Amino acid sequence: MTTDAFDWAADQMCVTFTRDLDPAEVFTRYGADPARSRLLDADAASDLPTGQFADGAVSLLRSGRLGDWTFCVEEDGVIGSWPELLTALSRGTETYSVLSTEGLAVFQYWRDGRCVENFEPDLDQPPSADPGPWRERVREAMAEREGPGMAPVVALVLDHLGLTLDDATLAAPWPTLTVAEDDAPTAPRGDSYAGEGPVPPGAVEIL
Fold it and tell me: Number of helices (H) and strands (E), helices first, in the chain?
């Protein structure tokens, strides 16, 4: 799949794909009130106050159902990469998470509240004792990219899931809201975390 139509995934974003949840439930698991969501296109959504322009750290979330999967694209934030959020989001189902922000690129796959794969493809990390099937596929996709970002990895996941979420699709009206990092799930991760990816501020020590 070409990445020419995935400018939205080039950099400074985090996106999750979760099976069999509707957007309202996805927003709820992110710690947001789905009743606050509005149907906004990309231009209207970009006017909402987020990041450094808001009171505290605030992310913009846009979510929608595509077949059996619901995407949640996050701008000005990294909540979708937190282990606490992914534990909640994947409980009873499965979730893919792709992060690209401030020089950090992370791929994660979670199933039923537990991390299956978590790695930074830009780093020459030693594989775990039992590396999953995505490590080499993601690194191959990254090796062919031009410029920063994780657009090739997003394209790879979309192709695997049989979904279309290119620039034109995402520009259309989708349920949209903002959420403060303070409202996102922050329960102790226990032994559910298995990787070296980003952790939320103030997280407890990995056991």
Answer: 6, 8
Asked whether the beta carbons of 56 and 76 are under 8 A apart, the reply is no
pTM: 0.85
Please say whether the beta carbons of 5 and 155 come within 8 A: no
Question: How far is 160 from 40, CA to CA, in rounded Å?
Answer: 28
Long-range (24+ apart) CB contacts under 8 A made by 130-137 are 134/107, 134/109
Q: Is 20 left (phi over 0), alpha (psi -120 to 50) or beta?
A: left
CB count within 10 Å of CB 75 equals 21
Q: Return phi, psi of residue 63, to 5°.
A: -135, 155
Q: What is the CA radius of gyration of the chain?
A: 16
pLDDT tens digit sequence for 101-143: 887 899 999 999 999 999 998 766 655 556 688 988 998 888 8
Compute φ and ψ for 157, nearest 5 degrees.
Answer: -65, -45
- Each residue of 25-49: pLDDT tens digit? 999 999 999 999 999 999 999 999 8
